[in-house]
Amino acid sequence: MKLRYCPQCGEELVPKKEGDSERLFCRGCNEFVYENPVPVVAGVILDKEKRILLIKRGVEPCKGRWTLPTGFLEIDEKPEETILREIKEETNLDCRIRSLVGLYQQRGWRYKSVIVLAYTLDVLKGEAKAGDDAVDIRYFDYKDLPEIPFKSHREIIKDIFQGKR
Ligand SMILES: [Zn+2]
């Protein structure tokens, strides 16, 4: 989404060069407005048959499509807390983090760019059922995956199943 107004004062932003970079400038604040990537978390849960858990999204963007469980960090939350909270909300599973898969970057919807922190998780307890922002939930074989709209999630899943992570 393109930023049009200054988040500080509400003045309409104008393009202006800063060195070689074309940026947005606020004439009200007399300052450049910087846009930076926003972190999000995504979780990888495999069952005993090495199938991967996906949720069917109940909210935009990509409502009705299958993705990894994912979400934004609350302001004072650590990413490790966010992923456990999001997993619980969307899948009803209590998990513990096994490892960080890696960091992935892609263009976003609400934000221009997001950095996805991907974690593998072990299920401690609970039965998988869709909740909160998810309308369905299922384990998928790697050979039988639905089309996944988020590029970063496709990369994460590929890295997991091709053993690169
Ligand atoms: Zn301003």
Keywords:
mainly beta; Nucleoside Triphosphate Pyrophosphohydrolase; Ubiquitin Ligase Nedd4, Chain: W; single chain; binds zinc ion; 2 helices; elongated; 3-stranded antiparallel sheet
Short description:
With 165 residues, the chain is mainly beta. The chain has 2 helices and 10 strands; from the N terminus they run βββββββαβββα. It has 2 domains: 1-35, Ubiquitin Ligase Nedd4, Chain: W, CATH 2.20.70; 38-161, Nucleoside Triphosphate Pyrophosphohydrolase (Alpha-Beta Complex).
**Unreliable sequence segments:** none
Distance between the termini: 32 Å
H/E series, N to C? EEEEEEEHEEEH
Structural class of the secondary elements? Answer: mainly beta
Q: How are the strands of the largest sheet arranged?
A: 7-4-9-8
| Biggest beta-sheet profile | 4 strands, mixed
The tally of beta strands, per DSSP, is: 10
How many independent structural domains?
A: 2
| CATH topology value of the largest domain | Nucleoside Triphosphate Pyrophosphohydrolase
Oligomer: single chain
**Count of helix runs:** 2
Give the strand content: 35-45%
On the 0 to 100 scale, the average pLDDT is 94
Write the layout of secondary structure elements.
Elements: E1 14-18, E2 21-26, E3 31-33, E4 38-44, E5 52-57, E6 66-67, E7 70-72, H1 79-91, E8 94-107, E9 113-125, E10 134-140, H2 151-161
Parallel strand pairs: 4-9
Antiparallel strand pairs: 1-2, 2-3, 4-7, 5-6, 5-10, 8-9
The chain binds zinc ion.
Zinc ion is lined by residues 6, 8-9, 11, 26, 28-29.
